[in-house]
Amino acid sequence: MSTRIEEFEDGEELESSLQSLLETDTLRWIFVGGKGGVGKTTTSCALAVELAARRESVLLLSTDPAHNIGDALRQKFNNTPTLVDGFSNLYAMEIDASINESHEFKLKQEEGFGKIMKDLVSAFPGVDEAMGFAELMQSVQTMPYSVIVFDTAPTGHTLRLLGFPALLEKGLSKFGSMQSSFGGIMQMVQSFAGDQQVQEEDMQQKVSNLRAASTGVREMFEDPTRCTFVCVCIPEFLSVYETERLIQELCKHGIDSSHIVVNQVLFPEDCGELISPEDASSSSSASAAAARAPTASSLEDDGPGAAELEALAEQLRSLPLPEEQTGPMARLAEQAARRVRELEKGWSMCQKKRRMQSKYLAQISDLYKEDFHVVPIPMLGDEVRGVDRLQEFANMLKTGGRVLPMSR
């Protein structure tokens, strides 16, 4: 089986699906992230459901403070892995990776090491939270699951989380230099500790453990065969902007990001545009149909418009015939006119939305088509909740052949 790296080296066109990710059985961590409201939770839950059919055991872990995996799976979860209903190998848990809010993995604020570290690295904002993250990820690394899918918080929080290993290493290095610079460091430490005696060996061991945890997380992040990040976006300005920012930061941290899910895409057929049989059988059907999509005037040419139907109703009522003969037909024409106006309004709004999307879809294509698996997902009429709907969504994620619909 070829890896994603080999696909890039071969220079082949990348499939518009997550199939290559699903088939990379060495992956242990799969992060799913993007701007809030773009479908991160739906994507992560669908991935977990699909992976459960391929892997020995799967954990879906939410680090988003606004946990939504329970809503998607129609089940309540907490900070302990819980078996998902209907599965024997899929577990889910909801936990905040912040030290200040996490309960299970919170760095203990006891007298001694916790207090000392807090005081000594107070000059580095965020180090306390980074220590908590190291504790969390150290626990995650020991969990007995073949793959863990992370449903992350919106972009800003996620980027801070991914930068914690480097921040923690910086803080620990500073702490080490302080120890070597001041001969009386342990006396100061003991004064902080109060009545509790802190041994130098214990202090060094805990610092060493934290550094090892940070190093282990960083090594996992930087290994594309074990860790990857799936970016989710929608074709709107803020989402496309945050996706570009996210991918740049992932690159800076050495984290693989080979797949982009573009959610809530309006395809020509979603707006009632006509698609010929040859277009439907083509891999570029969306673009071909968009190029020959009908205009508002051509729709009017295909049949009577609202104005014509209203005129017909007036003509029927003006005929020198009894009301019982012309009335039903006139009312039917009036009803048809109202319905046509509603359809024309809806079609117009859909077209405006498609034109707006096409600008950002073109940007996504220009930026990522050559180097990423770009997976367009159509806008759906219903919420994706429950295992059955999530499996349908997973089928769209793993089925390629769709292309981003461009403007006509």
Automatic annotation (TrEMBL):
| Residues in the signal sequence | none
What are the UniProt keywords, alphabetically?
ATP-binding, Cytoplasm, Endoplasmic reticulum, Hydrolase, Nucleotide-binding, Transport
EC number from the UniProt entry = 3.6.-.-
Does the entry feature the keyword Acetylation, yes or no?
no
Q: Does the keyword Cytoplasm feature in the UniProt annotation?
A: yes
Question: Where, subcellularly, is it found?
Answer: Cytoplasm; Endoplasmic reticulum
Which positions in this protein are listed as binding ATP? 35-42, 236, 263
The active-site annotation reads: 64
**Gene Ontology cellular component?**
GET complex
Task: Note the CDD domains from the entry.
Answer: ArsA
Say where the protein is mainly found: cytoplasm
Q: Per the database record, which ranges form the ArsA/GET3 Anion-transporting ATPase-like domain?
A: 28-270, 348-398
User: What's one GO BP annotation on this UniProt entry?
Assistant: tail-anchored membrane protein insertion into ER membrane
Which spans does this entry mark as compositional bias, Low complexity? Answer: 280-298
In this chain, the stretch annotated as Disordered covers 277-303
Q: Name one GO molecular function term.
A: ATP hydrolysis activity
Q: Which family does it belong to?
A: Belongs to the arsA ATPase family.
Q: Assembly and partners?
A: Homodimer.
- Describe the task this protein carries out: ATPase required for the post-translational delivery of tail-anchored (TA) proteins to the endoplasmic reticulum. Recognizes and selectively binds the transmembrane domain of TA proteins in the cytosol. This complex then targets to the endoplasmic reticulum by membrane-bound receptors, where the tail-anchored protein is released for insertion. This process is regulated by ATP binding and hydrolysis. ATP binding drives the homodimer towards the closed dimer state, facilitating recognition of newly synthesized TA membrane proteins. ATP hydrolysis is required for insertion.
Q: What is this protein called?
A: ATPase ASNA1 homolog
The protein's organism comes out as Polarella glacialis
